[in-house]
Amino acid sequence: MLVETAFLASTASLLWLLNYYFPVGPIFRIFFPIPIALIYLRWGNRAGWMSALVSGLLLSVLMGPVRSILFVMPYGVMGVQLGACWRRQASWLTSISLGALVDCLGVFFRFGLTSALLGEDLWMYLMARIRDLSEWLFVQLGILAEPSLLVIQILAISLILLSNFVYVFVVHLVAILMFERLGNPLPKPPAWVETLLEL
């Protein structure tokens, strides 16, 4: 258990480190929670949390505490959450929904921490970009009104939730392909996902 926990925790940290210094798009990001989820699936709750903590400590040494915190929340916590759902044979809808919620909390945590460190409100910057998008949508739809702040915030939160839902779904697809070969199968996916995987 200790060897696997240390190895997979360092794998998760290495993926984060490589993605930070050599960003290749969303490819590495898909794998961030998978090593921690695998540890939870194989060895249980204590090992899952230990791997998340060890990943954070290793990144704290290599990159500093701020970047390690940005890994642990959400990806370390998401790895534990996904491992717990998969070990308890929860449905895909449940595990994806909880994972998207954890990722959404991670986005807001990241905005809050980065805003505090920079001394600027990044949420307001995002709201300005979403306002531009919503104004463009209103023009395309022929709506002669300016979007209110409430509409802009609902649109921003909806876009964040949608992107997180898609991200966690892709993590599930990658995990089911990997874990079957490792002898740790995931809960049975919906029928349309099985059809997609067969194609």
UniProtKB/TrEMBL annotation:
One of the Pfam families matching this protein, by short name: DUF2232
Membrane-spanning intervals of the chain: 20-41, 53-72, 92-113
Protein name: Putative membrane protein (DUF2232)
UniProt entry keywords in alphabetical sequence: Membrane, Transmembrane, Transmembrane helix
Organism per entry: Chamaesiphon minutus (strain ATCC 27169 / PCC 6605)
